[in-house]
Amino acid sequence: MEVVILPGSKQIASLAADAVEALLRRKPGAVLGLATGSTPLPIYSELALRHERDRLDFSQVRAFALDEYVGLPADHPESYRQVIAREFTARVNISPANVHVPDGAAADIPAACQRFEDAIRDAGGVDLQLLGVGTDGHIGFNEPGSSLASRTRIKTLIEQTRRDNSRFFGNLAEVPHHVLTQGLGTILDARHVILVATGAQKAQAVRDLAEGPVSAICAASVLQLHPHATVLVDEAAASSL
Ligand code: GLP
Hints:
This protein is 31% helix and 17% strand. It is of the alpha/beta class. Bound molecules: 2-amino-2-deoxy-6-O-phosphono-alpha-D-glucopyranose.
């Protein structure tokens, strides 16, 4: 695992966008893994800018979201299908048909999870996975205690994560209790993983994931086992290293 400490989110966005751009110039039909949350947003803005300004082409890209809430209608503004489209894929020329999000509204959840895993496999696997991290060390929605070998499945959010994410909803009661998420094993299959974290509220999670033991208590620590994991943090998020 390589940890890179940068002055702020602008530099993080620029470096992460460089990695995406280099991949797309080498492999125009690359498979991207996309994260929600607020930390990756400057990366998406930077990529949208490069699309506009430098004609960075996403027409052959396939994209897979990490996770989705269960029980929100697909057109709910906070469903991750909507968030990923609004914040990124609709701002570049990725075909909507090439954007895959776990189906949190499916009647048969295990079948929907299997279909999602199959779609990643059929696309040839994820080339570059972007990740944020929760204050409890979750990646995707793999909360503490997630199996290090897990695949896409349903999970229950802990109260802290629901509180953290309530800022996107009207109030805490509106935040779903259940989610579908790529498993830690699914994430580990990506060929390159870039995790981004900013702000002092992520300092403990960054320390646990980079310097703590590999443990299901801090799901992101599993990235220590990945052969090509890059962690981009600002000085505040690095302050406990
Ligand atoms: C959600 C997402 C995670 C994300 C986390 C942190 O829980 N499922 O993928 O990493 O939020 O979000 P933020 O970057 O807003 O702190």
